[in-house]
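User: Please predict the structure of the protein below. I'd like the answer in structure-token form so I can feed it into my own downstream comparison script.

Assistant: Understood. Taking the following sequence of 513 residues as input:
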Amino acid sequence: MTTILTIIGCLLGIALGVAGAVIVTRNMANTRAKAIIEEANREADVIKKNKLLEAKEEGMKITSEAEKQAQQRLSKVQSTESKLKQREMQLNQQQNEIQRSRHDVEQQKARLDDQRMRVEARDKELDALTAKAREELEHVSGLTSEEAKEKLIESLKDEAKTAAQSYINDIMDDAKLTANKEAKRIVVQSIQRVATETAIENSVTVFQIDSDEIKGRIIGREGRNIRALEAATGIEIIVDDTPEAIVLSGFDPVRREIARLALHQLVADGRIHPARIEEVVAKVRKQIEEEIIETGKRTAIDLGIHGLHPDLIRLVGKMKYRSSYGQNLLQHSRETANLCAVMASELGLNPKKARRAGLLHDIGKVPDEEPELPHALLGMKLAEKYKEKPEICNAIGAHHDEIEQTSLLAPIVQVCDAISGARPGARREIVEAYIKRLNDLEQLALSYPGVIKTYAIQAGRELRVIVGADKIDDVETEKLSAEIAKRIQDEMTYPGQVKITVIRETRSVSFAK
């Protein structure tokens, strides 16, 4: 029992100690809290004072800025007011000047009215004097005024006709002296400033192969591969004894190019059978079509021609695979376009239109369809279809005199087309056809009476005709050259133009012994 009491006493002591410690701790916490609160109040007072100072400074700044803006506005108002005062003074001055001017105008009008009245009175006096003088002249001459006027007009007409005829003759003489020289200068200068390559095209293409073993693979079993290739391309494939070569024959250069490229891909790939042939030919045909369009675009860009219809661009690209008398049609059209531009510039015309007409003048040779129309008229219809300007359409249609020329572009295109086609080396023909054409040319001239000899020279571009001096006189020689030229033009086909020179001479030969 004593032990329990002792324990209880210890516990009570401990509780009392703990309670005392708690009380001391609470007192210390209260003291610390009071100190923190006082410190916070002091800091709040400092912050409040700082904020008040900042607010005062900001208010002073705003007040200063407002005063500054008010001063600026006041100065603007004063400036505007001074300007308005000056304007008012100017208006008052102008009003005074207008009033003075009005007064001057009224005075001048009064003077003019007075002068008009005097002039009218003077006119009446002159009319009376004129009538009196006319009566006296009619009485003296025995003619009325109308009869005298008619005689005067007739005499003036005769004098004017004589003077005009003399002036026309002077102009014609001067033109004969200078026109030929000036025309030659323009043509020569145009040709010298334009140079283009001449490409000679054939009707066959030679395809080179590495060895003759490939020929058998191209022919195929019982010729099925070569038949499939000919059917797909429309080109005759000639496999003969020529070593390491196969000949592709056809009149259409586009088809020949498709056949050549397709054969090249087939040989390089090694798989040659009918199905593969059709696949490769279709792929190559698509590539050629894309290349045609790209060639047309590049040509238009090179020549500085814009706004061409896509179908016209495609037709221009097709010219690359067409030739005329061995002359590549695209090169010929480019050369003609450049010649037209130079010649138009020399003559003071629009070179861009001339270049456009020169490029398009032969598009009738490469249509997608083949109607029964001359290529010039067909080209004109295509140009009209694709909204080209009327003068360009006329130049295309009239460059072979198949329609009337209605603009100055037409003769320029015609001349430049002839220059490009007649240039030496530009075109060529098969030898047999060339020789036959020259023989026909000479025989045609020999068929006329009085002709002794004929010589076709300059590759058939000039025909010299020698006539007997005792059979034809000088007047008839001019007539003969014109008749031969007309007959050649009507009956023969030839590139460029043919010059006919008729020579008549008298020779007297004696021998000194």
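That's the full token string. The longest helix spans residues 2-141.
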